[in-house]
Amino acid sequence: MLYVKTLEESNKLLKERFSAFVNSETVPLIHATGRILFEDVLSGEYVPTFNRSTVDGYAVIASDTFGCSDSIPVLLKNCGAVIMGESPDCDVTKGSCCYVPTGGAIPESADAMVMIEYADVLPDGTIAINKPSAPGMGIIFKGDDVRPGVTVLDAGKRLGPADIGALAAMGRAAVSVYKKPAVVVFSTGDELVLPDETPSAAQIRDVNQSMLLSALYKTGAEPSGFGILKDNKEEIKKAVNDSSRDFDMVLISGATSVGVDDVAEEILKELGEVLVHGIALKPGKPTIAADVRGKPVIWLPGHPAAAYFVYKLLVEPLLLGMMGCKENRREAGFLLSKTIPSNHGREECVPVSINEGKAIPIPTKSGLISTLSRADGFIIIPRDSEGIKQGEQVNVILF
Ligand code: AMP
Ligand code: MG
Fold first, then answer.
1. How many A from CA of 366 to the centre of ligand 2?
2. 253 lines ligand 1 (CB under 6 A)
3. What are 59-96's pLDDT values in tens digits?
4. Cis omega (within 30 of 0) on the bond before 283?
5. Which residues are placed with Cβ below 5 angstroms of ligand 2, an ion?
6. Helix (H) or strand (E) holding 252
7. CB of 130 sitting under 6 A from ligand 1
8. Could you give the CA distance from residue 180 to residue 177 in angstroms, rounded to a whole number?
9. 195-223 pLDDT, tens per residue?
10. Is residue 290 a contact partner of residue 273, using CB atoms and an 8 Å limit?
């Protein structure tokens, strides 16, 4: 008999039990991509440290250019040219200007730039400006990007290329990130063979191991695959027991439903404390979660689609919590292309593809995997719902 919990209850229980994984390490900037920032990053300096031009052109006093046009250009004395990487040595006063290349430092006394496209150099060297500029135009001011004491990146953020760029701009060559939880993955089943083996008549290839390792990799954990275990209680028990010592989490699939050969609950009861046995989720009901030596052991259903949905909805949130990640999962609203009936008292995951702004349900069975690989995401039909009608707005959890 399964005493099922809702997904929400299960998530809460696991989160409360296993939230204590707080561990950081310092890594070089280029190795920080995809990692979770451990502490807030404040800037200690101005970025940029000087006023820079955003165009190739002339630094001017904006009011000098007011009212000029193609037919009545304003004539300014050229007082020099700024060299990239060097401080300006020309002083722009009323009636004068100075050439500044893109990214060059603008003389203190100037307050605007005019693009070279709107300036002509006359034979005597005078600059004829034919388009007015406003104060601040064409300038990135000192501290526009970053000011000292301001939090630029918040702890818990997953670092992407733009964040790495911001850190580089602030002079950070290394950054403190959460350690990756080490997660071990086992498959169970006498019928399973490795992906590079040819299954005989009643055998199948192990899908879950590769799929879960990939999912863990994407979440940002440190995955290790320990292969296929036979449906042998002692062998499985030893593997779970040993690995709970060495890893931060154990993921195992197959042999979870209540049946003659299903030994999962027995093993976990002998090794630790069973926290969840059965989740009101379709597919994914026969899921077991336990605490062994203070480590989460999550035993997923054997059917690949079921294992994947439970990974996305139960395992991933737990891992993200352990990793300190504050990012929200990617979701978006779409109109449903076709009515989906549902009435079994469990939350139901339905894979969907997205086309022309519509979510199109993909008919599948929990033993299939290629259907899931065609999906862009999935929707969750609530427990008490009779289904969702065509044309209704649905929230798609994107893969
Ligand atoms: P079980 O939970 O062991 O009863 O497995 C349920 C179904 O999932 C059975 O059809 C198994 O053959 C299948 N299955 C179990 N483990 C895997 C796996 N690692 N890869 C693919 N299918 C699996
Ligand atoms: Mg099995």
1. 14
2. yes
3. 999 999 999 999 999 999 999 999 999 999 999 999 99
4. yes
5. 189, 254-255, 302
6. strand 249-253
7. no
8. 9
9. 999 999 999 999 999 999 999 999 999 99
10. yes
